[in-house]
Amino acid sequence: MTVFARRARAAAGRMHPELSLVSYTLLGHLEESGGCRATDLAAHYALDKSTVSRQVTALERAGLVARRPDADDQRVQLLHLTEAGRRILAQVTHRRRAVFRERLAHWPAPDLERFADYLVRYNTSPGPDPEDQDAHPAPTATA
User: What is the pLDDT of residues 77-89, one digit of tens each?
Assistant: First the structure.
């Protein structure tokens, strides 16, 4: 898993030098969710609020994310992708998919099916019990 994570970070840097893997995933979630609060991002990815705050600030400075008041509660600021954010996310997503297709092009179909099944299984399995996390806190992600 460590090698996989290192490769993913390195690949993210090659896809777009100004967009870290954490930034890419945050942009992806904002696109998928249609916008959300920074605290929602922190909770979704189990990241420290300060980590998300630094990432969001960098994304705002780059013009990829903007804050808007929540229509239901004007005190709440929701993060949304800007047009530039959508464009960069689409470019990076396209490049990532091309790299995956190239890397997996020579895999036999049964191997691809098993790999896909394992990824689905891994991604849908429940995370650790929150009570266990208190005893063994997870390290925070940095970009």
Answer: 999 999 999 999 9
Q: How far apart are CA 117 and CA 108, in angstroms?
A: 14
pLDDT in tens, 102-124: 999 999 999 999 999 999 998 88
| Length of the chain as a residue count | 143
* Cα→Cα distances 45→8, 13, 42, 87, 117, Å: 16, 20, 5, 23, 22
Nearest to 141 by CA among 31, 35, 19, 9: 9
User: Among all chains, which residue has been given the structure tokens 């994310």?
Assistant: 65
Q: What residues contact 41, with CB distance under 8 A and at least 6 apart?
A: 26, 29, 30, 47, 52, 56, 79
User: What percentage of the chain has pLDDT greater than the value 70?
Assistant: 79
